[in-house]
Amino acid sequence: MIADWPERARRLVAEFRADYSRRPRDAEMQALIDELSEKSPLFPQLWREQAVLHREGGEREFNHPVDGPQRFLQTALLVASRQECKLVCLAPLILD
Q1: Which residues on neighbouring strands pair with residue 75, listed in sequence order?
Q2: C-beta neighbour count of 40 within 10 angstroms
């Protein structure tokens, strides 16, 4: 459903690595990395790239199986006192 999946997957893993860097000894984070590595042939390859990116807003596009292309404006809100908390909002954009 995610348009431009190869590039979005690369970015999502890099964003996840940024989150991981704040808690590198967290057993639950390591368990999630292990599970993703087991279940996805792409995840270990992207994880080894060691890219780190912080979440940015911007347009996101999805290919809905019934409704077709859907575009949204993404905004990420971070809680200053609790860096592990973030809220990602998607507001619909109207396609012409």
Answers
A1: 89
A2: 14
Distance CA 50, CA 21 (A): 11
Q: Write down the pTM of the prediction.
A: 0.77
Q: Are residues 92 and 72 in contact, defined by beta-carbon separation less than 8 angstroms?
A: yes
In whole angstroms, give the CA distance from residue 36 to residue 14: 14
CA–CA distance, 80 with 84 (Å, rounded to integer):
9
pLDDT in tens, 8-64: 899 999 999 988 988 889 999 999 999 999 999 999 999 999 999 887 788 889 999
Q: Identity (one letter) of the amino acid at 14?
A: A
